[in-house]
Structures are given as C-alpha cells and as structure tokens.
Design goal:
This protein is mainly beta. It has two domains: 51 residues, no CATH class; 118 residues, Immunoglobulin-like (Sandwich), CATH 2.60.40. It is 14% helix and 45% strand. Strands 6-9-12-11-10-13-15-8-7 form a nine-stranded mixed sheet, covered by helices on one side. It has a four-stranded mixed sheet with strand order 3-2-1-4, with helices on one face. A two-stranded parallel ribbon has the order 5-14. A hairpin with a 3-residue loop joins strand 10 and strand 11.
Length: 183
C-alpha cells in the first residue's frame, strides 16, 4: 500500500491529489486555501493510514535578463529621431528607426515585439508589431510608425508575450516611449 498521498495546490487554486483534479473542496463546495488543503489531505491520510507528502511545490524561477544601453536612431541620415522632453523619442510618421540594446545572456533568437499605442501614456488602445533579432548579446529591431500618436515599448508587455509562448526567460529594461508626429 502506498504510504504517501501526493497532493499539489497549484497557483490557480486547483488541488491535485494523486493525479485527480479538484477545483473545489468536495466537502464544502468552496475554493481551496492552504489550510483547507492541509485539513483535507490530513483527513485522507487518516482514513487511509498514510501521511501527507507534499502540499505546494516551489515554482521554478525563470531567469530575467537585463537589456541595457538602449539606443534609438533613424535608419537614414536624412531623417531624424530626437530625444525630446521627458526622455521621449520624437519622430515623424514613416521614419524608419532602429532600436539596439545590449542583451547579454539572452539566447540568440527572433522575437515578436509589441509596441503599444497608448492614451495618457498608460492605457493601450492598439499595438504595432516588429521583429527583433537577438544575436551574440545584441538586440536589434527596425520599424516605422505610419500613424501619429504616443507609443511605448515596455518590459511588462514583452514579458506577457514571452510567457504566452512559454519562453524560458523574461527581460528587464526601462520603457521606451515615442511621440510620432506629422512632419
């Protein structure tokens, strides 16, 4: 007879006992808490004369790589990208720009990067997508905006995308903000 009851309460509040999933406590119909899990598994253990093995495993932390020395420049010398007030990059519509950054330890890769069009510098209302290439510790991205507005490239949004596609790392960097205007 197995002397351990294997149980895991995951981060979504779902309890797994010996491979069986319990969304709610079958005795009360309520959501699980660490205490109710402990009580329930202890009761099962007492009924079966076995001991509780595990309630909640530690989640493995993903590495977070810092992107630094971020530079934004115009692709063509006849065009301009200006670092304006508040550290916001100003550029005319349809100006091809390049973003480069040191990306030490980030695995060589191509990543889809979402640059959000925002209102009040915070509320996303749309996004533009660009392909960034990471190679030998350097990130580069080339793009342009065809509509005026305020755009942000943030670690928060990029990490949401990395999580969605199960990438084994996250990134950290200061938000890059653009004000795109009609010249």
């Amino acid at each position: 007879m197995n002397t351990n009851i294997e149980s895991v309460l995951d981060s979504n509040g779902v309890l797994f006992v010996e491979g069986v999933r319990y969304l709610y406590n079958p005795e009360t119909g309520e959501a699980w808490t660490k205490k109710t899990v402990a009580d329930y598994v202890a009761k099962l253990a007492a009924e079966r004369e076995v001991v509780m093995k595990d309630i909640e495993p530690e989640a493995a932390a993903l590495p977070v790589y810092e992107l630094n020395d971020i530079q934004v420049s115009a692709v063509e010398s006849a065009q301009t990208v200006e670092l304006g007030n508040g550290g916001i990059y100003w550029l005319p519509t349809d100006t091809a720009f390049t973003i480069t950054a040191n990306a030490k330890d980030v695995p060589d890769n191509r990543l889809m990067v979402m640059v959000e069009k925002v209102v009040d510098a915070t509320r996303a209302i749309d996004d533009e997508r660009f392909v960034a290439t990471v190679k030998k510790g350097k990130l580069s991205l080339t793009g342009s905006f065809d509509k005026t507005g305020n755009y942000t490239l943030s670690a928060k949004r990029l990490n949401e995308g990395l999580e969605r596609i199960d990438m084994p790392f996250r990134v950290s960097f200061p938000t890059v903000e653009f004000d795109v205007y009609r010249a």
